[in-house]
Structure formats: C-alpha cells, structure tokens
Recover the amino acids of this structure.
C-alpha cells in the first residue's frame, strides 16, 4: 500500500513537471515589447530591432516562425535595397540588348549602383566575360545562379548573416522575466527530481538482493505503448534540441541564474541539456543505489559515474568558462570526443598558452596512454561504466531497459561491423581534419575535410549518439550507442579483447543455464553461452557493469583482474567429472 | 533397422527427452562425430529450455524465449533432428519407438533421458484441481492459470499451501508471493530442509523465509486434501488443523519418468539401472539424467541424483562414448547450489546433517545472511566439505582440496583464494580464519604470517 502510494505520487509529480516543462513552448509568450535588443542587434539594424519589438506576443512555437519571417523580410529588404533585386532580369536583358557579348566590366560598373555590389558581381562573374555562349538564355541562367551568392554577400555585409545563431538569442531576450528568476526552475526540476526519488523510495524497504520481478510483465519495459511514448518523446526531444533549438527558449532561460553563477554567462541549449542530463542521472542513480542495496560493486560504480558526470562533465567546463578558459571535459577522450583535433579547438588550446597546451597534452595522453594502460589493468569498464557520461546515462536512466538488448548471434555480427566501421570513420575523419588543421588546406584526395566532418557530426554525433543512442533506450536497450556506435568503445574493446587482465571468471561447473545473465546483459552478450561451458567471458564489448554477476542466482560469475594465464580458455573442461578423456 | 539395399543408411542415435541430459548427449555426440544421425524427442517443448529457470518466467524476470540456452537455428545447424511427440513405448527387440501421434521411429542406439516428475504420496484428494508440483512447462502453465494475473494484485484473496520444503518448495513460494498470494509451508523435519541442511543452517534459512512472510510450519505433514467443485479448498495437517487454500504445491521430491518403459524388459529400480558407461541392462540402450540410477554409486554419492549438473555430466560422457571415446561416468567431489529467496547457497564436498564419530562441523556466522559450515574428520582433520550461505566460493579451489584430501587447516589457510564474492564486498576470510583457529583449536598454517605479508 505504502509502496504503491509512493510510486503513484512520485510518478504523478514527475508527469506534471514533464508536462509543465513541455508546455513552456506552447503556453508561455515571448514578448519583445520594451525589450532592449541592442546587445544582440547592432544599432545599424535599428529598423529590424523596431520591427521585432512590434511583434505580437506569442509562445515559442509560433514566435519562432514570426521571428524568422521578420529576419527574412529584413534580409529581403536589404537585398532589394543594396543587392540585386529579384526582378532585375528584364531590365538586365534590355540593357544588354540580349547579347552576352555586351557583358563586361563597364557594363557592371554602369548597371550596378554601389561599389560593393560591383566588386562582388565582378568576383563572381569574371569568368563569364568574353565567353562564347550558346544563347542569351544560357548566359542568363548562369548569371542567375550567381545572383544568389552575390546577394548572400550583400546580406552578410549590410544585413545579418547568421540568423540561425542569432535567432535563439533574440528569442531568449523576449522570454518573460519571471521565468528567469530561478523559481520556476526550482519548481519544475525540483518536483521532478522529488517525484523520481519518491518513485524509487520503495526499493529502500525491500530486502537486499536482486528484484527483477515483473520486468517482463511491465508494459513500459517491454516495448508496449508506454515505452513507445517515451521513445517518441526522447527522439523528438533530441531532434528539437539539435535542429530546432529556438523552440526550447523558455526552457533554456529557466536556468539563467544557474548559468550565471556557474559560468558567468547566459544559459543556452547545451547548458540546459547538460543540466537535464545530470539531474536525470542523479535521480536514476539514486534509484540504482537502492535497487542494488546489497551489491557494493554496483553502488561504488554508480557513485563513480555520478561523480564524473557532476564534477567533470557538468561543473568543470562551466568553471573553466567563467575563467575565460576553453570549456573542456577532462574525462572525455578522443575518438568519442571527435572534435578534439578540429582546427577551432586546436586554435583554442594554442591561444590559451600553458593551460591550453596542458589541455591538449592531457587529451593526447588520455587516448594514447591512459586508455590502453587502464584497460590493460582493469578492462574497458574503467571508462565505460565508471567514468563515461554516455555510459553513466545508460547505467542509470537506461537501467530499466537493459534486458531489451538483442542477444542473437546475428546482432553480434551487425555490432562488430558497425562499431568498428564507426571507429574507422572517426579515425579517417580525424586524419582529414588534422590535415586541414595543421596545413590549412581543406581538401585531401579531393574531398573537403569540412564535408567529412559535417557528415560525421550529423550522422554519428547527432543521429547515432543522440537520437538513436538515447532515444532508442525503450526499444533496443540502454547501450545502443555504446554497443553499435561508439568509436571509443571499439578502441577500448580491441585492447580489452587482446591485451588485458580483465575477464569474467566462470565458477567451475555451477552454471544452471538459467539465462538471467544473458537476459540482463545490456551489451547483448550471451553470457550463458560461455558460462554453461565453463568458459571465461572475454568479450571486447563487455563494459564490466557487473550486472550479469549480480543477477546470477548461483554465484557463477566474477569480474576479476588477474594474470593473463588461463584468461582465455578455448577448450574448457567443466569441473566435477573425472572420467572424460578428451584426447582418446 | 530398415535397409534399402545398396548403401547402408547412417547409424542413428535416438534420444528421448530434450532436457539437459539428452541435449548434452546430443551436443557432445555431434561434436565428436559429424556423421551419425541424431534425433531428439520431447513431448514437453520442441526446443531445449532450462528447467531450473521456470520460476523466473512466472515472476517476469524472463520470458520463455530467454530460458532457451540455444537459439532455434542451433539444432538445424548441428543436424540434430527435433521431434515434438510423446513416446508411448519402446520395442527393444525391434529397435523402434511407438509414438503417440507420429510414425514409429527406428534407432540403432537409444538414449533415455526422460527426467522426472513430482512425487505424490497418494494423499486423499491429490487429483483435485489446484494441486500440483512444479517440474514441467505444463506445470508452469497450470500454475499461471490458477494465479491472479501479474501486477494486478491478489483480488480474489487466493491462498496457497506448499508441502515439503526443499529447493522447489522455496522457489514455488517465492513465485506465488510475487502475485501477492500468502504462502504456508509444511515441512516434515524439525528445521527447514532438514534432510540436507544442518540444524543451525536450517534454522537460519527458516528465519529468512519467515522474514519473507512465509508461514513456515515445521514438523507438520499433510494428511488430507479437501475440495469443493473439484478444486482444492483446504488441507488437513498431521496436527489436525485445517488450512484453507486455493493452490496446493506438492514439492516432496521427484521420481523418474519411466512408467512408459514398463514392458521394455529394462532392469529398473526407482530409475533405470546403468553402469559407469551409462549403459542399461539392454545393449544399445542407455540412460542419463534424472531417470538414470547408477548401479554401484561411488562412496558418498547417491544412485539417483536429480540435479542439473549430474544430468549434464552424464550427457557429456555418454555423448563422447557414443562417438567412440572411452569416457566413463566418474563423478568428482559433490557440488551443488541453490538460492533461498535472497540467500545464495553453495556446497562443495559433503556436509552431513549432523555430526558423528568421523564427521564434525564448524558453524560460522560472518554477518546477517552470511554463514558457513565446514565439515572434517575429527582425528585426521581431513576436509569433508563446506556449505556456504550468502558467500560465493570458488569451485575449482574446493574441487582440488577435496580430490587431494587436504587437511581442514590447510584448506582454511588459503580460503581467501576461494573467495568468489564480487569486488568491493566486505572481505570475510581473515576473520573466518581467526575464528576457526580460536574456536576449534586447529592450526591454520601461516595464517598470521600470511596476514603480515599480504
Ligand atoms: C523447478 C526446478 C528447479 C530446479 N532447480 C535446480 C537447481 O537449481 N540446481 C540443480 O542442480 N537442479 C535443479 N533442478 C533439477 C534439474 O532441473 C533436473 O535434475 C534436470 O533438469 C534433469 O534433467 P534431465 O535431462 O534428466 O530431465 P528433464 O529436464 O526432466 O527432461 C526430460 C524430458 O523428457 C521428456 N519426456 C519424458 N518422458 C517422455 C516420453 N515418454 N516421450 C517424450 N518425451 C518424454 C520430458 O517431457 C522432458 O522434456 C530443478 C528442477 C526443477 C523442476
Ligand atoms: S557481460 Fe556482464 S559485466 Fe559485461 S556488459 Fe554484460 S552484464 Fe555487464
Ligand atoms: S545467470 Fe548464472 S546460472 Fe544462470 S545462466 Fe548465467 S551464469 Fe549460468
């Protein structure tokens, strides 16, 4: 009774908070009346600023559109005024007498009014002067294509070039002040966390031990409609976060006071994301602590990932920022941290003098020495389930979904191709980008490093690691990214498989093939396959979460770091029977 | 066997029963003989599943699919033909099987691995609906039908009585409680599982069950089962008390599944008698697993040992024998394991239920729900075995100690090497060694020195 009540109260609190959080995008108006936009919009664009302040208040979902239209109109005006207006062609043809041969420097100087425009036209169409054209139409079409580039330069010069960057900031300026006081944040996040805690609390009253009762009876854990709803919400959240950040304006400003205290600056979507990530991990980490009350390994490990998330991933970069230093998460290693060798980052390090050099050296040491060394001694678990933020989220927020990972041989095959493929991609991209970083030349083998990085950033950074990696928890298990996509996991895994002291020891002949271990292995390892043959588990993908050992009802599995002798037993003999002579 | 002229058809091994014993036979045979035809028959489920894990399906820890140790493609890939049908009888002279719904099946060699079924003692009313054991998949399905659906609470206030507190009894009790059904457990002995555990252990486990709200009644037996409308409604105990119940779990042991062999001419006692090559009294018929009874068991071992490992090991041996190897069934030191709610239990070697002239015990409690019993010979101090509760121990270590007949002092002096608890668990060996030395006066060699070095 008490337990049920606690869970219901907790769940209701959480749901109310989640709805309030989402509703900020739909119900709370952005209003630019009497707002000072001068910090964001230069006084030379006063017209734009005035235009914005006359917009009718509206919630973000509507205001984003209005504001982009306003920006668009403004740019259009700039083009009409200072660029090549869209109805230029008739006059253009007339003046040229429909003859491309008349197109030359003098014509440009006479036809286009401003000097800036003349220069830009010349820059873009130089090659068109004095050419043989099949027809005037052919010429005109080519010129038309160039017009948009020219107009872009015009907008960049006289208008506002990067509206995608500016728009969320302007939106924030229009967000209501009462959202920025911190009180609403305290209510929404505070009660959500409280709800989570209350929901988890009944676990505290249970006996020590493993309680997976009803996991497979529970609709929200078995791909039924509640899981599908969570799945859709998560994926939509990631898409909005990455692609449509301005819709989150009201949510972002909630954290203004926190951001100011920590980093001394305004909050942005990444700050919001980091904050949500951290509190979600804390809440579900609390649940983990209670769920594994009797299991020290699980508790210590959970405490460790929480520590690294709170201190290293969330707080430290903010503090560095407040000291005007590059925000750097010291635990984040290449190639997971795929931007490490990007030119802007290397530039950042170099600009920071000693501290920057330290950061650069630290990062290089981490992946070149730290990763192989620690993995040799402790297995990849030291990173994947003790330190890493992605792993941390998977182990806390994702824990209720761990049994959904596919254990089939087929899935293992796909996993090996995919994860090593991503590693190869990450390495190649880094080679490309470093080449650009250190030589300043953007193309290697005819492919632009900017293209390579943007393909990687979109497909791996956003789609795989974000939307799929986390969004798919409720349908494919909590380690989708770690298992199929993470290049660092692939790298750690290679070390773990071939040169490490870590293994999961199988306890002689005690396995009863029950399948708990395989079922609850988040990495989809068929642990039972090995255990029932008396064979140690030495798999590159094992993140050493220790849950297989925890759920085994017969005490068969032990995670150990020991000498390399006898670690891999290809032809194990089960203990307990002496009359088998395998060599006859 | 039928012979269609020309090339003789391949040798065919037929196995009745696809439990761990039958499956291990088939797998080992295939591993060492890629030619032979293998047929694996079962009337329970087409695919091998882990019987020991049935409880987890009921409790929602797993689905049936999860308790199948091999994916379904495995059998075809290894060319093991699966037949889902019941064998009505064996014609040993004609070397063929009479099937319930399909054609006769011929064999060259026959392996009987038909396992066991719950043992009922002829109580009045034992055929009422709601009275059942827990061994087969069908038992599980029946229990599911009797129970309230999961997560909906026990709205009809169903009650359960379990007769016989053994391993399956505890499992059944744990299962029923996840559906909110209160459980009363009747146990014949003075303490829980008194036929295997020592008194100290039985008391501790009994207390643990009570903490889990099991109404444990010791020294109480079942007398009579009463029913209304064909369904069980209450039981009368040996003390004359009437306990109302809607589900009656019978877990008073199992007995081999061998009635269908009555007319085969096989020599049988409680099980099918086999020698250490696992051959029965009829050449080309073998038996493994729960249904096989060893004619001359090794000292300290039983003839019928209905446990998973024995079935698996017999299957390994027989599979290899059928593939032409000289393996014999020669079990090493005894081991087993189980779980009583939250307390894991492991045993290596032999710990008797009580002390005797040539067998004494040392009971040690390290913390709540963590305790150990060590047994040894009072004079020679040879180590006999260890029961451990809530503490995981390394099989390899004790197997070696037992085979080499080590002295108990030496076994205990290195017991830290046998600690199999997960990392960061509180280390118990040092205290255990010191207490053992203090309490028994038996020297634990080097214990102090080792402590100083390490
Ligand atoms: C609930 C439960 C929990 C257990 N837990 C443990 C444990 O933790 N540790 C442990 O060591 N042991 C445990 N045991 C015991 C262990 O499961 C058995 O010893 C083991 O499964 C026996 O295997 P087997 O292959 O001999 O027979 P079984 O697994 O019983 O297989 C026999 C098969 O043969 C089929 N069969 C029988 N007759 C016919 C016929 N005439 N025609 C066709 N098919 C037929 C049956 O339907 C069955 O599928 C447990 C048993 C149960 C029931
Ligand atoms: S094998 Fe065990 S320790 Fe490794 S990832 Fe799977 S559950 Fe975790
Ligand atoms: S959980 Fe333990 S007993 Fe069950 S299959 Fe895995 S190793 Fe074997």
């Amino acid at each position: 009774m008490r337990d049920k009540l606690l869970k219901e109260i907790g769940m209701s609190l959480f749901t109310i908070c989640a709805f309030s959080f989402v509703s900020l995008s739909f119900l709370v108006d952005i209003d630019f009346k009497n707002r000072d936009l001068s910090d964001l919009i230069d006084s030379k664009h006063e017209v734009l600023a005035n235009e914005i302040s006359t917009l009718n208040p509206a919630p973000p979902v509507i205001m984003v559109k209005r504001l982009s239209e306003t920006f668009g109109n403004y740019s259009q005006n700039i083009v009409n005024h200072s660029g090549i207006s869209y109805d230029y062609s008739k006059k253009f043809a007339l003046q040229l007498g429909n003859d491309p041969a008349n197109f030359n420097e003098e014509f440009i100087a006479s036809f286009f009014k401003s000097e800036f425009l003349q220069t830009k036209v010349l820059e873009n169409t130089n090659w068109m002067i004095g050419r043989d054209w099949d027809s005037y139409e052919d010429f005109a079409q080519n010129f038309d294509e160039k017009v948009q580039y020219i107009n872009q330069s015009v907008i960049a010069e006289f208008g506002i070039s990067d509206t995608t960057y500016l728009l969320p900031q302007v939106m924030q300026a229009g967000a209501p002040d009462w959202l920025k006081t911190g009180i609403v944040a305290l209510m929404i996040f505070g009660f959500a966390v409280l709800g989570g805690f209350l929901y988890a609390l009944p676990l505290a009253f249970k006996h020590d031990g493993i309680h997976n009762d009803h996991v497979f009876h529970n609709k929200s854990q078995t791909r039924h409609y509640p899981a599908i709803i969570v799945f859709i919400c998560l994926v939509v959240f990631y898409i909005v976060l990455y692609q449509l950040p301005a819709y989150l304006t009201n949510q972002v400003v909630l954290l203004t006071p926190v951001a100011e205290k920590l980093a001394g600056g305004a909050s942005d979507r990444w700050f919001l994301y980091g904050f949500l990530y951290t509190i979600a991990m804390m809440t579900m980490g609390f649940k983990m602590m209670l769920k594994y009350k009797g299991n020290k390994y699980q508790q210590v490990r959970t405490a460790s990932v929480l520590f690294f998330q709170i201190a290293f991933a969330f707080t430290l970069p903010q503090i560095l920022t407040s000291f005007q230093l590059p925000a750097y998460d010291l635990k984040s290693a290449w190639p997971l941290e795929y931007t490490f060798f990007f030119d802007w980052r290397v530039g950042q390090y170099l600009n920071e003098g000693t501290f920057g050099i330290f950061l650069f050296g630290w990062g290089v040491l981490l992946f070149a020495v730290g990763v192989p060394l620690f993995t040799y001694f402790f297995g990849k678990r030291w990173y994947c389930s003790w330190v890493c933020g992605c792993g941390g989220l998977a182990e806390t927020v994702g824990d209720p979904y761990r049994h959904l990972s596919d254990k089939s041989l087929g899935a293992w095959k796909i996993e090996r191709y995919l994860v090593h493929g991503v590693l190869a991609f990450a390495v190649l991209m880094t080679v490309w980008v470093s080449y650009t970083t250190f030589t300043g030349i953007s193309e290697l083998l005819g492919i632009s490093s900017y293209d390579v990085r943007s393909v990687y950033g979109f497909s791996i950074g956003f789609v795989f690691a974000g939307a799929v990696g986390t969004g798919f928890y409720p349908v494919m298990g909590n380690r989708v990214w770690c298992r199929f996509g993470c290049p660092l996991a692939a790298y750690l895994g290679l070390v773990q498989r071939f040169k490490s002291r870590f293994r999961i020891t199988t306890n002689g002949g005690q396995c009863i093939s029950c399948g708990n271990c395989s079922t609850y292995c988040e990495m989809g390892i068929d642990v039972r396959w090995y255990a029932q043959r008396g064979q140690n588990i030495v798999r590159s993908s094992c993140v050493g979460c220790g849950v297989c050992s925890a759920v085994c009802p017969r005490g068969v599995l032990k995670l150990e770091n020991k000498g390399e002798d006898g670690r891999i037993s290809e032809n194990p003999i089960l203990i307990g029977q002496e009359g088998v002579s395998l060599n006859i | 066997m039928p012979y269609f002229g020309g090339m003789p058809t391949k040798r065919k091994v037929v196995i009745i029963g696809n439990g761990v014993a039958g499956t291990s036979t088939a797998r080992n045979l295939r591993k060492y003989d890629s030619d032979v035809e293998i047929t694996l028959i079962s009337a329970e489920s087409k695919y091998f599943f882990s019987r020991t894990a049935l409880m987890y399906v009921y409790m929602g820890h797993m689905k049936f699919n999860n308790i199948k140790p091999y994916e379904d493609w495995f059998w075809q890939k290894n060319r093991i033909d699966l037949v889902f049908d019941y064998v009505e009888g064996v014609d040993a002279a004609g070397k063929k099987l009479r099937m319930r719904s399909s054609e006769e099946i011929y064999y060259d060699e026959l392996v009987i691995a038909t396992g066991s079924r719950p043992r009922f003692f002829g109580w009045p009313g034992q055929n009422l609906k709601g009275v059942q054991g827990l061994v087969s998949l069908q038992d599980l399905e029946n229990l599911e039908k009797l129970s309230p659906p999961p997560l909906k609470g026990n709205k009809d206030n169903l009650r359960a009585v379990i007769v016989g507190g053994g391993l399956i009894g505890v499992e059944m009790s744990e299962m029923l409680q996840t559906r909110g059904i209160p459980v009363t457990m009747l146990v014949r002995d003075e303490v829980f599982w008194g036929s295997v555990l020592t008194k100290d252990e039985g008391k501790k486990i009994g207390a643990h069950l009570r903490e889990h709200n099991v109404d444990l009644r010791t020294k109480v037996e079942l007398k009579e089962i009463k029913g209304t409308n064909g369904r069980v409604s209450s039981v009368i105990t040996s003390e004359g008390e009437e306990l109302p119940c809607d589900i009656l779990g019978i877990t008073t042991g199992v007995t081999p599944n061998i009635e269908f062999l009555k007319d085969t001419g096989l020599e049988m006692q409680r099980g099918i008698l086999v020698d250490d090559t696992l051959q029965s009294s009829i050449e080309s018929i073998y038996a493994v697993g729960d249904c096989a009874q060893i004619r001359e068991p090794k000292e300290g071992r039983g003839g019928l040992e209905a446990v998973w490992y024995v079935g698996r090991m017999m299957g390994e041996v027989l599979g290899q024998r059928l593939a032409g190897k000289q393996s014999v069934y020669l079990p090493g030191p005894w081991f087993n394991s189980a779980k009583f709610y939250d307390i894991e239990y492991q045993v290596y070697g032999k710990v008797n239920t009580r002390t005797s002239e040539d067998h004494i015990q040392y009971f040690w409690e390290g913390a709540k729900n963590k305790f150990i019993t060590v047994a040894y010979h009072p004079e020679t101090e040879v180590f006999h075995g260890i029961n451990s509760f809530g503490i995981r121990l390394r099989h390899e270590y004790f197997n070696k100690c037992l085979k080499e007949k080590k002295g108990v002092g030496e076994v205990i002096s290195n017991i830290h090497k046998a600690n199999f608890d997960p990392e960061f668990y509180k280390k118990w060996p040092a205290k255990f060694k010191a207490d053992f030395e203090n309490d028994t006066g038996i020297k634990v060699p080097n214990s102090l020195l080792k402590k100083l070095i390490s």
Chain A has 26 helices and four strands. The two ends of chain A are 64 Å apart (CA to CA).
